């Protein structure tokens, strides 16, 4: 199995069995994301306590890549500081846009599997949707983000 097959497996697994999927009635921060190009939509909810993301859930419906990306995002930030989530967003966004994680690969871990979609321009929006929603939720800038 080569590296790209391994990455595909990670995406397929999260796409089929998304982690932290569902509602979060106690959420303190939330945002919705829409990607009209693909039809992906999701709602991300965070419970922030003392600067820590104590819990995070998402729901909605989208393609395998947007679902996998949201699922992996929740795993990456759950229990971490808001500052860490902000930092991950910046690194992930940079890597997704350039198609190369570079030195951030170590920090991004499994998330690097999503960077491979860079070769399919339209799928980048699927992979970054949840991250834009995260950014909007923690900065409390907008309640709803769209990739268009
Ligand atoms: Zn999509």
Overall form: globular
Decide which structural class fits the backbone. alpha+beta
How many H/I helices? 5
End-to-end distance: 36 Å
- Unreliable segments (pLDDT under 50, ≥5 consecutive)? none
> Hetero groups bound?
zinc ion
User: What is Rg?
Assistant: 14 Å
What spatial order of strands do you see in the largest sheet? 3-2-1-4
Mean pLDDT: 91
Largest sheet: 4 strands, mixed
How much helix is in the residues?
Answer: 40-55%
Write the H/E string, N to C. Answer: HEEEHHHHE
**What is the count of β-strands?**
4
Beta-strand portion reads 15-25%
Q: Could you describe the 3D structure shown?
A:
By secondary structure, the protein is of the alpha+beta class. It contains five helices and four strands; from the N terminus they run αβββααααβ. Strands 3-2-1-4 form a four-stranded mixed β-sheet, covered by helices on one side. A hairpin with a 2-residue loop joins strand 2 and strand 3. The longest helix has 19 residues, at 121-139. The N and C termini lie far apart (36 Å). The structure holds zinc ion (ZN). Residues 35, 38, 40, 62-63, 65-66, 126 line the site of zinc ion (ZN).
């Amino acid at each position: 199995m080569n590296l790209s097959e391994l990455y595909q497996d990670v995406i397929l697994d999260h796409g089929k069995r998304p982690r932290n999927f569902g509602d979060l009635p106690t959420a303190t921060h939330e945002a919705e994301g829409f990607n009209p190009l693909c039809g992906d939509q999701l709602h991300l909810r965070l419970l922030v306590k003392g600067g820590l993301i104590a819990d995070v859930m998402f729901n909605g419906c989208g393609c395998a890549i947007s679902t996998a990306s949201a699922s992996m995002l929740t795993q990456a930030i759950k229990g971490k500081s808001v500052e860490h989530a902000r930092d991950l967003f910046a690194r992930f966004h940079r890597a997704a846009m350039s198609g190369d994680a570079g030195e951030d690969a170590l920090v991004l871990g499994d998330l690097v599997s999503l960077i491979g979609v860079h070769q399919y321009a339209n799928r980048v929006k699927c992979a970054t949707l949840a991250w834009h929603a995260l950014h909007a939720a923690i900065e409390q800038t907008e309640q709803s983000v769209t990739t268009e």
